[in-house]
Specification:
By secondary structure, the protein is mainly β. 8% of the residues lie in helices and 31% in strands. Strands 4, 5, 6, 7, 8, 11 and 12 form a seven-stranded antiparallel β-sheet that branches. A five-stranded antiparallel β-sheet has the order 1-2-3-10-9, with no helix packed on it.
């Protein structure tokens, strides 16, 4: 069959976008959600011992960041999150400590990556507003609201198992320094694993959300207060990583 040259050209342009959204979880766009947080595709792929966490949105990923408030208490965090079924032990926390999630976040009022200088200005304590990655462990916490999740607090006086790049906050949060790529309509992070089987054997989901530091800067320190969208609709972790 012979195609008109214009039609053929359009098909060639469209092909990469179609291929990019194969596998994973495909989600219809929602007009009520801000386009840069309106998830349309979530996927994890693996190559060797590296897993690529991918999320596509209907708008421009990373376009919106929280407004600076000038103080830690009550400050906001915007995030792209991949909840997984991976045991938190695999990245340095205690066994079954909660839901392990990879998160790409921005928050202008504090810096939680003390080992890294994301904005390249020679300082490592002033770049929380640059999109960066974390491992977080989540659990339901009624103090954050009905059915709401929070990053798990570390009770005072306890010493749980923590990753070596833990940033020193009293939370089950790690700052491993993997730089996310935000390119037009997608955000991606490449994450190395000692055993890639812990990724391929599990499930995942996609979430865009806003979090808030407790006004009293006390447990629960960091609550999920605004869920913009859940890829599966119900946080059932239906995604299966592509090998």
């Amino acid at each position: 069959m012979n195609l008109h040259p214009i039609v053929a050209a359009l098909l060639l342009v469209a092909a990469p976008a179609v291929l990019a959204h194969e596998g994973g979880i495909t989600t219809p766009a929602k007009p009520a959600v801000m386009t840069d947080f309106d998830i349309v595709h979530t996927r994890i792929t693996t190559h060797g011992n590296v897993a690529t966490f991918h999320m596509a949105v209907s708008g421009k990923a990373g376009q919106t960041r929280p407004a600076a408030s000038g103080k830690l208490a009550g400050s906001q965090v915007f995030s792209y999150v991949w909840p997984t079924s991976i045991d938190p032990w695999e990245v340095g926390f205690e066994h079954k400590a909660g839901i392990l999630a990879l998160a790409v976040t921005a928050h202008p009022d504090f810096d939680d990556t003390p080992l890294f200088d994301e904005n390249g200005d020679g300082r490592r304590d002033n770049d929380g507003d640059v999109w960066h990655s974390h491992w977080v462990v989540l659990q339901p916490n009624p103090a954050c609201g009905k059915d709401a999740l929070a990053v798990v607090d570390i009770p005072e006086g306890t010493k749980p198992r923590l990753p070596r790049t833990w940033p020193g906050l009293p939370l089950l949060l790690d700052s491993p320094g993997w730089s996310p790529t935000l390119d037009a309509g997608s955000v991606e992070v490449q994450v190395p694993f000692d055993d890639i089987g812990v990724v391929t054997a599990g499930g995942f989901d996609g979430v865009t959300a806003g979090l808030r530091v407790n006004a009293s800067v006390h447990a629960p320190l960091l609550c999920v207060v605004d869920v913009f969208k859940v890829a599966s609709g119900n946080l059932s972790l239906p995604g299966k990583p592509d090998r």
